[in-house]
Please model this.
Amino acid sequence: MAPFSPRAVFPALDSLPRSYFLGHHRAGLTKMKTMLSQIDLIIECRDYRVPISSRNPLFEESLAGRQRLIVYTKRDLGNNGRAADAEVTRARNTRQTNQ
Model:
């Protein structure tokens, strides 16, 4: 069996419906937008195990141009020190540089 090799790129597919965007998600995003004028720094938490796919394109659009700190959570659940983990880290760093 071939070793696991994670994807480094996750293409944006506009053809996929946003089927898991529930009503309370919309309410939270709307509330967040109204509070942005009062906030100097945004701390965004993403899942370490899925660094690229845990970003939210609607947040990206709302937070464009704002200072923020991205914190990766659940690192203890990742595969520290393994080649696959290093590849994910490289992909994450490349993606952040291009944002």
Observations:
- The chain has one domain: 29-98.
- DSSP finds three helices and two strands in the chain.
- The radius of gyration is 16 Å.
